[in-house]
């Protein structure tokens, strides 16, 4: 049986045997009888009904509700029938990855801005096998780079995301941020929800006017951060390093050799698309940042659960080796399930636009300076956070101030560390006097952080490369 709401987005080609194949793939991923995160539930967290109603059915006070090892999954998610229709949708912030300095600062920024603790998942499940063996390698225009470990990591992110979404209430909202290379820089819970609704509705209405699928209350689209290139099918050229050193703003791209000759759709999941160029032509949005970035996204749990169930089916059927390869295929074949935040109203991906093989450059490199100068006040320097409106600086290209930053590719080692350092300086009174937490869902425990822990990390590895 196709999940409710799925049929409204089914393309015309997906009928008969193809539809049956899609149902089989989806059913294998949507089964939750052995859901790892469902086993973390407990009915013994809030003894009094008053406390249960306050923490599970209404907008919770994080300090009161999620202290002492309690969290939403453990205490609430299996018992929401007790709310008896009195429950208000909540916002959950979740991140996939390992605990690191970046994760600690992200957890603080999430709690400061949105008032909810960060839910970390995937940190202890690296050993689990994938449901298929794919071609986990990457070819750019000048050669092949083996990415077996990273590719498996990124596909696993899709599958574990769906597993966690399965145990969250469908009416709630979720904001996802990569654990080791993102930062929330502004906003409140209410502002974030309003921005999400505005971006999603505008894109859906534009698509409807062009003849695409309209708005579906049961399947609100998931809003992803945007990129300037169609990664990983399209990669930044090695020539960009030399161009940036000559202060030229032109950015060249190259099509990945590993996908240029590949034929997609042989599984029957969608129409035949020959090579990455055809996939990207179908998945591209209009705007400043037209391509999907999986490092940051937001949506209603119901819509996100449906999307990640289907994208897992696409990855499985096509033996995808990268999460964004699968997402671009999904958009090409099932338009309407996701939209891209093309004007960086919610997320801005700070991308050096350099190839991975030569893009890990010093902080003073011209390519880094170009990204820092993309905002009205230099990114993550003194004065960046506090303008006349007490907000971080706007992007020059779009006139918007994103809620969260994602430091993609080589930017993890310079832009991310710059912004982490500036964040801890700007909010030093909070960080030096407070302890804060995240919930490690894999381990079922609370992880505590403090200024002393951050200082120890920096002394131990002041210039370390971040490992996702």
UniProtKB/TrEMBL annotation:
The keyword Signal applies. Residues 1-22 form the signal peptide. It comes from the Eukaryota. Keywords: Signal. This is Protein xylosyltransferase. It comes from Polarella glacialis.
């Amino acid at each position: 049986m196709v999940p409710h709401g799925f049929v409204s987005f089914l393309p015309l080609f997906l009928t008969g045997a193809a539809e049956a194949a899609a149902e089989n793939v989806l059913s294998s991923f949507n089964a939750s009888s052995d859901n790892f995160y469902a086993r973390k539930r407990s009915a013994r967290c809030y003894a009094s009904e008053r406390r249960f109603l306050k923490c599970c059915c209404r907008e919770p006070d994080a300090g009161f509700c999620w202290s002492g090892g309690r969290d939403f999954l453990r205490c609430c998610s299996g018992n929401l029938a007790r709310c008896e229709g009195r429950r208000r949708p909540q916002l959950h912030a979740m991140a996939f990855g390992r605990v690191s300095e970046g994760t600690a600062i992200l957890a603080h920024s999430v709690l400061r801005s949105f008032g909810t603790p960060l839910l970390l998942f995937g940190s202890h499940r690296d050993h689990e096998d994938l449901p298929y063996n794919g071609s986990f390698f990457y070819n750019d225009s000048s050669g092949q780079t083996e990415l077996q470990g990273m590719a498996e990591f990124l596909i696993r992110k899709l599958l574990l995301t769906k597993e966690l979404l399965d145990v969250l209430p469908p009416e709630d909202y979720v904001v996802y941020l990569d654990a080791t290379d993102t930062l929330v820089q502004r906003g409140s819970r209410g502002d974030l929800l309003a921005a999400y609704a505005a971006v999603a509705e505008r894109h859906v209405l534009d698509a409807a006017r062009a003849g695409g699928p309209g708005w579906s209350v049961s399947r609100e689209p998931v809003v992803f951060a945007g990129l300037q290139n169609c990664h990983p099918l399209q990669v930044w050229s090695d020539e960009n390093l030399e161009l940036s050193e000559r202060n030229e703003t032109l950015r060249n791209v190259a099509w990945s050799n590993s996908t240029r000759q590949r034929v997609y759709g042989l599984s029957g999941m969608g129409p035949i698309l020959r090579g990455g160029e055809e996939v990207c032509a179908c998945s591209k949005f209009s705007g400043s940042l037209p391509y999907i970035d999986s490092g940051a996204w937001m949506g209603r749990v119901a819509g996100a659960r449906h999307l990640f169930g289907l994208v897992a089916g696409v990855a499985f059927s096509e033996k995808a080796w990268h999460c964004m390869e699968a997402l671009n295929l999904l958009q090409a074949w099932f338009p309407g399930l996701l939209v891209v935040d093309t004007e960086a109203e919610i997320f801005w991906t700070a991308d050096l636009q350099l190839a991975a093989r030569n893009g890990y450059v010093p902080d003073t490199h011209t390519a880094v300076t170009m990204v820092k100068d993309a905002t009205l006040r230099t990114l993550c320097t003194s004065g960046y956070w506090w303008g006349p409106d007490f907000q971080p600086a706007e992007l020059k290209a779009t006139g918007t101030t994103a809620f969260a930053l994602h430091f993609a590719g080589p930017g993890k080692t310079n832009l991310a560390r710059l912004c982490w350092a500036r964040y801890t300086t700007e909010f030093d009174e909070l960080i030096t006097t407070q302890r804060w937490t995240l919930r490690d869902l894999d381990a079922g425990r609370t992880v505590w952080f403090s200024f002393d822990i951050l200082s120890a990390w920096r002394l131990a590895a002041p210039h370390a490369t971040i490992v996702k």
